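Bit of a strange request maybe. I'm writing a small parser for structure token strings and I need a real example to test against, not something I typed by hand. Could someone generate the tokens for this chain?
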Amino acid sequence: MKKTLILLSMLLAVSVTACARKDGTTTPSPAPAGSPAASPAASPAASPGGTTAAAGQTIYKQNCVSCHGDNLQGGVGPNLTKVGGKLSKDQIVTVVSNGRGAMPAFKGRLSDSDIGSIADWLATQK
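Reply from user aminoacidic:
Good idea to test on real output. This should exercise your parser:
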């Protein structure tokens, strides 16, 4: 029983740390073929906040893919393919900023502008 608890604790710790780097820096990665970058929702259309969907998607790829998947399919974190139909942009900002459940808070790791860009982009995923 103790081994199982220790293993689960280690898995959770690795999962949480994989979601973002502690120093707040990110490493850009190119979008693979067939990823959301190739979808119409990822086109660089301007959002109401003046950011672009492409900027939100790029920030997502740099910080969220390890838990939520390159196609929003989920994995360690939940599936986000239709998150825009379930949560408003403001609700998404709150979750990204403050965290939820095992998801860490990104306030202080990402700028308010970056969090807004991610929320803009995720809000279009319906």
